[in-house]
Amino acid sequence: MVEHEQLPDIRLEFFSRPAFLGVIRRMLDTLCERLGLSSHESARICLAIDEAIANVIRHGYQNDPDGRIELTVTRIESPEPELVIEILDRADTVDIDTIRSRNLDDIRPGGLGVHIITEIMQGVEYSHREGGGMCLRMRHPLGQNSTVGRSSSDG
């Protein structure tokens, strides 16, 4: 699954508590802005990550506030610039074949997280982690106008 080993640019570990979602959204929004993404694209990425983490909290940990979640963000330079975001947990594993959006014709609140994630992110891969838990790996292209390299200063 990993083309080459590259350390993440950002690694954040936190408890499975909804209160942290706003902080994570703001961090990701700022990062996306610094990478040259539009505010619209940044908001879409933040929504996808928010939905993914909320799913881990709700479905993986059944709202247990003491579960641990790890978020990694890696900027890949080649062959095409892209952002790789992973969400890792040690929650109950699920059958990967059962991870899907509900029927969109079923008009009701909730249940659209998987649909939102797959619509926004270019690549979405679920896998089981050795020792238990799940890994969600998402990719999003950065395009040629991305502005932050490994040696950029904080400005």
Provide keyphrases for this structure.
Heat Shock Protein 90; five-stranded antiparallel beta sheet; 155 residues; disordered C terminus; alpha+beta; globular; 5 strands
The whole-angstrom Rg is 16 Å
Main pleated-sheet profile = 5 strands, antiparallel
Fraction of residues in β-strands: 15-25%
Shape: globular
Class per helix and strand makeup: alpha+beta
Order of helices and strands: EHHEEHEE
Number of strands: 5
Number of helical segments with 4 or more residues: 3
- CA-CA gap between termini: 35 Å
Regions with little confidence, pLDDT below 50 for 5+ residues: 147-155
CATH superfamily: Histidine kinase-like ATPase, C-terminal domain
Strand order of the largest sheet: 1-2-3-5-4
Share of helix, binned: 25-40%
Q: How many separate domains? A: 1
Average pLDDT, to the nearest integer? 84
Q: Concise description?
A:
By secondary structure, this protein is of the alpha+beta class.
How is the secondary structure organized here?
Layout: E1 10-15, H1 21-34, H2 39-60, E2 68-76, E3 82-89, H3 113-120, E4 123-128, E5 134-141
Antiparallel strand pairs: 1-2, 2-3, 3-5, 4-5
Explain this structure.
The protein is an alpha+beta fold and 155 residues long. It has one domain (10-98, 112-141): Heat Shock Protein 90 (2-Layer Sandwich), CATH 3.30.565.10. Helices cover 28% and strands 24% of the residues. A five-stranded antiparallel β-sheet has the order 1-2-3-5-4, covered by helices on one side. A hairpin with a 5-residue loop joins strand 4 and strand 5. Helix 1 (21-34) packs antiparallel against helix 2 (39-60) and helix 2 (39-60) runs antiparallel to helix 3. It starts with 9 loop residues before the first strand and ends in a 14-residue tail after the last strand. Residues 147-155 have low confidence and may be disordered.
